[in-house]
Amino acid sequence: MKQYRAFCFDLDGTVYRGKEAIPTAVKFIHQLQEKKLDVFFVTNNSSKTPSQIRETLKQFGIDASEKQIYSSALVTAKYVKERFGQAKVYVIGQDGIRRAFQEQNIGMVEEKPDVVVMGIDRMITYEKLTKACLAVQNGAALIGTNEDIRFPTEEGFHPGNGSFVKLVSQVCNVEPIFMGKPSPVMLEMIQQEYGYGKEEMLMIGDNYDTDILCGIRFGCDTVHVNTGVVKAEAVKEKELQPTYYVEDLSEFHI
Fold first, then answer.
1. Reported pTM
2. Is 12 annotated for ligand binding?
3. How confident is the model at residue 1 (pLDDT cuts 50, 70, 90)?
């Protein structure tokens, strides 16, 4: 086993499912923290601020700082600022994406936007989707914080942000830009800010199409856990394989 320094965890389906912790993951994170190894949380969930995610982790018995949390909301806000400057943006989403845009001083509008940004919104309505469709048809760029079609909860799978972004893209016949995993941007941010070599980093997740491909595209080792969206049997049929397979994190020894 390689000696890794930075362990990057997906959240939904890897550390918890909905309102229930995955005990083996929590125990593994505690072991890493006891060994003074670096732990990061890399999530496509744009609905929560880093502070809110920290509180969620705390409820599951995990102590983390906001600096350890990287979300698709932060990446999306930085991308829009760099790519579109002072553009007017229509945002569908919750606290996380709105706070990230406020911190970047990006103007959020309800009418005639230059960009439509879609993050997960549990208060999504037909009116919001229609407004997004009309704006895109009138020339606005379409950006999704992530392309997850579904995510696991203690009840079963719920619709993910990607399902709504694809609805708008199909109505408007345009290709959206997606910012979260499998894009390697969040892992690149961690590497740049802390100076790790790629061989020192490990991406851990349950979803091949987001978590595992993110690690592969970044160039670090990956662990697929069989606790969430994509089961190991399906992953083993993929052309590009994760470095490790485990049923859960009790099987991964450091």
1. 0.85
2. yes
3. low
